Amino acid sequence: MELFNVYPLFDITIEKGQGCNVWDDQGQQYLDLYGGHAVISIGHSHPHYVEAMTRQLNKLGFYSNSVQNPLQRELAHRLGKACGYEDYQLFLINSGAEANENALKLSSFYNGRTRVLSLEKAFHGRTSLAVEATNNPKIIAPINQNGHVTYLPLNDLQAWREELEKGDVCAVIIECIQGVGGIRLATAEFMQGLRSLCDQTDTVLICDEIQCGYGRSGKFFAHQHLGIQPDIITVAKGICNGFPMGGVLISPKFQAVYGQLGTTFGGNHLGCAGAIAVLDVIEQEHLVENAATVGQYLIDTLQTEMQAGRLPHVVDVRGRGLMIGIELDIPYKEPRTRLIKEQHCFTGCSGTNVIRLLPPLCLTLQQAEDFIQRFKTILQS
Ligand SMILES: Cc1ncc(COP(=O)(O)O)c(C=O)c1O
After folding, report:
1. DSSP-assigned beta bridge partners for residue 350
2. Is 211 close to ligand 1, i.e. is its CB under 6 Å away?
3. Is ligand 1 within 6 A of the CB of residue 96?
4. 103 CA to centre of ligand 1 in angstroms
5. Nearest residue (CA) to ligand 1, atom 7
6. Is the CB of 247 under 6 A from ligand 1?
7. Residue 37 Cα: closest atom of ligand 1
8. Residue 17 — φ and ψ, nearest 5°?
């Protein structure tokens, strides 16, 4: 059998990782400013994480959601404390798309409505409702086109007010820092306006923190820079440092009903042990603070270099913490590929001309400086 060929691949086989570095099967080392698509939060193969996962696997990898699983409770307790939402409830699932799927479903159970408002350029996943809320016609199959979603411009509160005041919107789903959309930031004024419009119209406010959350923005959640509290927060990617897991954080105004949501694999013992170990490392190594410091250094230095004309083709640098977009006046393809091939450095990308930095949250100032030098070398030659 052949693989279903949906991924355009680099001709590189990554075999090993440690911290912010990965190695290919030829022994070549790469600096990883991509984190396997924002997934590696605490660094590749962190020893505490490896030890916790190994210990749990030797004990019990999986049992179903029909019996008590104290690890789920411990994770909920630890996550509530780490992010400051101790009064919220946690539903565990396996991926980002599934987290959004369940968030939207729960919203519809809550207020009985079926309309969703989403952002232009939004990305929320590739399954049913999640893909419908994703503003990319190329990945929405006819079966997903069910007319539930209206896409509106970022930070244009008046456009959102007009739709919300119709009183028929089930949920608003928003990335406070758009990832796939090209590192575009919601403003505090916009999010606070949306929060009060959602309150006035009994609309559920969902923040998709799958990419921008879990410490990446320099606060635990990106929306915490903007002075609002969503009704539902979705997480995945960094939660278990690469082991598939997602979560839905649900405000106390929602009451759980037996059987309304469910999953076979979600919240399994192995994943919970890994996710608890991730929180241990985030706390012990002050990774949220590190993301803020190193991210600000990267943004400031890249902006200074751009303004001084030392980064040809760079026209904008934006972001928060370790979620950074570098906009070019040329397609990203050639510089990104040369960064990998010539400078042995992985980065992400968005659209046609944005290089996206999504490194592990343990990136050091020295590694940040190292990246800037490699990037300069590529752009200047
Ligand atoms: C903001 C956002 N939401 C949802 C998803 C979907 O997550 P998954 O690929 O785990 O289904 C992604 C993935 O890139 C994402 O960036």
Report:
1. 354
2. yes
3. yes
4. 13
5. 96
6. no
7. 14
8. -145, 150
Q: List all residues 6 or more positions away from 253 whose beta carbon is below 8 Å from its beta carbon.
A: 231
Q: What is the pLDDT of residues 21-38, one digit of tens each?
A: 999 999 999 999 999 999
What's the rounded Cα separation, in Å, for the pair 54 and 243?
13
Q: Among candidates 167, 165, 216, 208, which has minimal Cα distance to 186?
A: 208
Q: Kindly state if the Cβ of 175 falls inside 6 Å of ligand 1.
A: yes
Say yes or no: CB of residue 248 within 6 Å of ligand 1: no
What mean pLDDT value characterizes the chain? 98
**Residue 232: CA count within 13 A, CB half-sphere:** 28
| pLDDT digit string, tens, across residues 146-190 | 999 999 999 999 999 999 999 999 999 999 999 999 999 999 999
Instruction: Please tell me the predicted confidence (pLDDT) of residue 58.
Output: 98
How many angstroms is it from 236 CA to the middle of ligand 1?
8
Residue with tokens 């400078």: 343
Residues listed for the chain? 381
Residues 313-334 pLDDT 10s: 999 999 999 999 999 999 999 9
pLDDT in tens, 212-271: 999 999 999 999 999 999 999 999 999 999 999 999 999 999 999 999 999 999 999 999
- What is the value of pTM for the model shown? 0.98
Ligand 1, residues 139, 211, 235, 265: which to mutate, most atoms within 8 A of Cβ? Answer: 211
pLDDT of residue 293: 98
Ranges of each domain in the chain: 47-284
Output the DSSP codes for 31-42.
EESSHHHHT-SS
CB 207 within 8 A of CB 176: yes
C-alpha of residue 115 to centroid of ligand 1, in Å? 21
Q: Residues 239, 286, 355, 328: is their CA dihedral positive or negative?
A: positive
CATH of domain 47-284: 3.40.640.10
State if residue 206 touches ligand 1 by the CB under 6 angstroms criterion. Answer: no
Q: Which tokens go with 77?
A: 């307790």
Place of tokens 């940040």: 368
Q: Does residue 125 line the site of ligand 1, with CB under 6 A?
A: yes
In a mutational test of the pocket of ligand 1, which residue from 7, 40, 118, 123 has the highest number of ligand atoms less than 8 Å from its CB? 123
Q: Which residue reads 């799958």 in tokens? A: 210
Quote the CA–CA distance of 141 and 149 in Å, as a whole number: 14
DSSP letter (8 states) at residue 19? B
